[in-house]
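Give me the fold.
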Amino acid sequence: MKIVALSGSKVGSKTRTAIDYVVQEINKKENDIEVTLLDLADYDIIFSDGRNYLDYEGDTAFVTRELMSADAIIIGTPIFQASIPGTLKNIFDLLPVDAFRDKITSMVLTAGSSKHYLIGEYNLKPILAYMKAQIVPSYVFIEEKDFLRGQITEDDVLFRLERLVEDTILLTKTYTTMRLEQESHYDF
C-alpha cells in the first residue's frame, strides 16, 4: 500500500507539523506501507495549463505522478481567506478529472479560528468527490490554539490524528479487497 501525505501550502508551518505527525503514525502502524511526504513548499510547481499530467516535467511531474500512483492520500491544508490555498487548488487542476478514482482520501485542516471548521465540508470535499475520491467521512480540524512552539499541544488533536490514520489505512485495505474481489468476476 502506498500513502501520500500532502502538505498543501508553500507558507506556514502548522500544516506541515500536523502532516509530519501523520507520517510518524503511519510508520508506527504498519511496516508494509510505503509513505511519501510531499510538502508543496519543497517543490517548484508550475501553474496548470491544461496539459495531461504526464506531459509536465521537473517537480510538477514528480508531484503529480506520486499522487496518481498512491492508494491513499492524506491532504493537509491550511485555511486562508475561508478557502484552501491556491497552491493546493493548482495541484488538483494539474490532475485529470478522475485522478482520485479508487483512492482513499482524508483531510487535516489547520486554521486560525474555529470559524473555518466547515471549509473541509463545503470547499475541499466537493473537489475530492468530483475527482472520484473515496473520502474518509471525518477529518481533523486543528486551530491555532492547539499549537505551541511548533508542536501540537492538545492531546485530543493527537488522538484524532491517530484515528484518522487508522481509518485511512482500514478503508484503503477494505476498498482494495472489495475492488479486487469485484474485478475477479471479469474474464479480462
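The chain has a mean pLDDT of 96.
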